[in-house]
Amino acid sequence: MDISAVMTTIGAQARAASRDLAVASATAKTQALNSAADAIVQNMDSILAANAKDMDYGAEKGLSPAMMDRLMLDEARVTSMVEGLRAVAAQADPIGEVIESWTQPTGLHIQRVRTPIGVIGVIYESRPNVTADAGALCLKSGNAVILRGGSESFHSAQAIHACLVTGLRAHGLPEHAVQLVPTRDRAAVKEMLQAVDFIDVIIPRGGKGLVGLVQSEARVPVFAHLEGICHVYVDGDADLEKARRVLLNAKTRRTGICGSAECLLVDRRFYDKHGDILVRDLIQAGVEVRGDGEIAKTAGTTTATQADFGHEFLDMIIAAKIVDGVDGAIAHIRAFGSNHTDAILTENDDIADRFFHQLDSAILMRNASTQFADGGEFGMGAEIGIATGKLHARGPVGAVQLTSFKYLVTGDGTIRA
């Protein structure tokens, strides 16, 4: 396969499709998404069979249990994918929305209106559901998309992509609006990163290695989705039972997602009142706790090294440390966080406000599990990723975040003095 020629063709087809999609009706896009959801339901067995091939491939590659969990599809997860497509379909169409309008003293009437970005490239690892999520959100926001899934999810992504194309065909939308790179060859990724004539923005969704490669080599603008080094700070004024429940969910519900807690920070006041109960809860749940200082004295823990803080484990492992109040937690998160998601557990409004105002993570939570760092849980239906940068999109990237805008200016023979 001539990768360069293939990617040039895909890019040209995406650019042409983006022009048609930008003026497609909201009804056609909604119907295409619902038809794609129907196709996934009808092809459940073939999708699961394709995923079984990918699971065998992942096992041969020696993927970790957390990565295998990311890769795995079952009936419940495919059903969730279908629900995500229908949720995106049900959202208001963002294209053409008047964000604001005003009239100048000159008589000019000015509107700022949402428009598609154009062509979006999505490069992702392992999780096959991203194929549906990214395809749906780009379609809803009027953007053509080029999807490059991970080598592990190659067969699953193809099966899901076929259902998206079925939806496009059924309602007269360009088939090339959603394209899947047809090779595992990494050369295709490099071609995408250099495709300034065809791709308007790249969104990487994966581990530090992938994001680092994209940021270092891309000539196309990038929406950064960095590591999910999520902290849970348990304040001295935290409710004990809430803290136990939320912490266990934040760490153990799914360890292989970017919203999984990777570091526990315990206020000295809380530890003096309640001892190591949170650490023992984690150990009992099967979590390896790498403790600093006094926490390492709890039976069943291991002693943390400096490298354990600021590390995304994506596994049943957590770093833990005692800090001196909210200021100690803030200092630690500033030093080791990734500006993704950080949570405080406290009943003290003033301390919660201090945590919220002094940290600049894309998502800050109070008395809630970091596992809620997800576009679907934010009411977006789905997400392409959690953007941790500060330009354009930040936090969960849904359909609205995949738009730009233009100014529409109306006069009446108006001239400038």
Outline the structure in words.
It is a single chain. By secondary structure, the chain is α/β, with parallel strands linked by helices. Helix content is 42%, strand content 19%. Strand 7, helix 10 and strand 8 form a beta-alpha-beta unit. The mean pLDDT is 94.
Q: How many β-strand runs?
A: 16
Distance between the first and last residues' Cα: 61 Å
Q: Which CATH class of the largest domain is shown?
A: Alpha Beta
Mean pLDDT: 94
> Which parts are unreliable, with pLDDT below 50 for 5 consecutive residues or more?
none
Strand fraction equals 15-25%
How many domains make up the coordinates? 2
CATH topology of the largest domain: Aldehyde Dehydrogenase, Chain A, domain 1
What's the oligomerization state?
single chain
The name of the CATH superfamily of the largest domain reads: Aldehyde Dehydrogenase, Chain A, domain 1
SSE class = alpha/beta
Helix content: 40-55%
Order of helices and strands: HHHHHEEEHEHEHEHEHEHHEEEHEHEEEE
Count of runs of 4 or more consecutive helical residues: 14
Radius of gyration: 23 Å
Shape: globular
CATH architecture of the largest domain: 3-Layer(aba) Sandwich
Main sheet: strand order: 10-9-11-8-7-12-13
Major β-sheet annotation: 7 strands, parallel
Summary tags:
417 residues, alpha/beta, 2 domains, seven-stranded parallel β-sheet, four-stranded parallel β-sheet
Give a short overview:
This protein is of the alpha/beta class and 417 residues long. The protein contains 14 helices and 16 strands.
